[in-house]
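[Automated response] Your request has been received and processed.

Submitted sequence:
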Amino acid sequence: MSTIAPPESELTLAELIARVGDVPLRRVRRDPPPGLATEDDVERVRRDEGRICELLDGVLVEKAVGDFSAFLPIELATFLNNFVRPRRLGWVLGADGFVRLMGTRLRAPDVSFVRRDQRVGGKLPMRGYADVAPALAVEVFSPGNTASELEKKRAEFFEAGTLLFWIVYSERREIVVSTGPNQHRVLTAADVLDGGNVLPGFMLSVAELFAAVELTDPPAGE
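Generated structure:
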């Protein structure tokens, strides 16, 4: 019984790196071949395997996973939602809150905040992906990530219109807050994370966030 071989990708290694950046090759899906993946494949993998992949110019890249990167976004989203929801400011989305950037890149930040005026009619669409970048995007560094990978992702979001980007480094207990592609500051456990111009009034002790992960109380005075 004969079978039809799947089409082979013609991407060179240099072309692959240009599309996905500094990503461990083990996270690059080979079915379908790199360069030939579509948004339908993103949904297929999520439906059949329960895995979240980003689509980068025809290449499926699995999101890095780990206990910290699974729990911390939920905890941070909870803090954000407790601020956002009573004020009806918009929506806090999880890791499957995809957004289409530059038309060919389907990105999935670990957490994002979308203002009401960023969605048609002030409502979330029931189907499909948004083409408008969230006001706030958050990534939690996982052992399967590289720093340059997240920096590339941050640059793409700012290019697409995001106003605030946080990268959470769990092992270092630090949060890099970016208000522009070249405007960054590092927060430690002694600092307070705020929503800046995107979520005025939102404040969260960095120590409190990490204490929630460790099931401990934050230091006195935090």
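Summary generated for your ticket: The two ends are 68 Å apart (CA to CA). Residues 67-87 form the longest helix (21 residues).
If you did not submit this request, please reply to this message.
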